[in-house]
Design a protein that fits this description.
Blueprint: E1 6-7, H1 9-12, E2 27-33, E3 35-36, E4 41-42, H2 47-55, H3 62-68, E5 76-78, E6 84-86, E7 104-110, H4 120-136, E8 144-146, H5 168-189
Parallel strand pairs: 1-6, 2-7, 2-8, 5-7
Antiparallel strand pairs: 3-4, 5-6
Length: 194
């Protein structure tokens, strides 16, 4: 069961707004954020802590703010307990995947699934979040990609994002199943026989 979204948009605002053109929407990009085992960087366990690094409010890792130009990267971040934090409105563009930022909504899981798998709560929250965003944006099929699956989506072509312990094919399959079940429930609600 999906936890209610926690809206922290006003709390973490970077003061910038770039309007999304919904007709150009091509899906959702999945990222990892928060802890980097390779470099020992720990940005925190909550979306608010992590956003502080992106905007430069927390200067512990200045390279993080430099990488995003002091702007927020992700629309949604999902914590290990499955809580989805909304950091940007869907109508705003976060800087998360170079040229794909304008075409996709950035969703990040907090942790490092290159080395540590997502918790069960976090995984199923991610599935539900992707399903909801897809329906809100009018997508009837599943357009969910990992950051490292996007051609030209990152400068470092060896970067694993979100990581091998998060199967993108399984995620797409589970999002499709949830979207189909939701459509079937709606069909039954309005009296359409399958």
């Amino acid at each position: 069961m999906l936890e209610p979204f926690v809206n922290i948009i006003d709390e973490v605002s970077d003061g910038h707004k770039i309007d999304r053109v919904f007709d150009d929407h091509e899906g959702i990009t999945i990222h990892r954020v928060g802890y980097n085992h390779k470099y020992g960087i720990d940005l925190g366990e909550t979306a608010a802590e992590i956003c502080g690094h992106f905007t430069g409010r927390n200067a512990q890792y200045p390279e993080v703010a430099k990488a995003t130009g002091g702007e927020l990267a992700y629309t949604i971040m999902i914590g290990k307990a499955g809580v989805p934090w909304q950091c940007l409105p869907l109508s705003d563009i976060g800087h998360h995947a170079r040229r794909w930022s304008y075409k996709t909504v950035g969703v990040a899981v907090i942790g490092d699934p290159r080395y540590v798998p997502l918790t069960n709560e976090q995984y199923w929250s991610l599935v539900d979040v992707c399903s909801i965003i897809s329906r809100v944006l009018g997508t009837s099929s599943v357009h969910v990609k990992g950051h490292d699956e996007l051609p030209g989506g990152m400068r470092d072509k060896t970067k694993e994002c979100p990581g091998k312990l998060l199967s993108m094919s399984q995620l797409r399959h589970d999002v499709w199943r949830v979207m189909r079940a939701s459509a079937e429930q709606e069909a039954l609600r309005v009296g359409l026989s399958p």
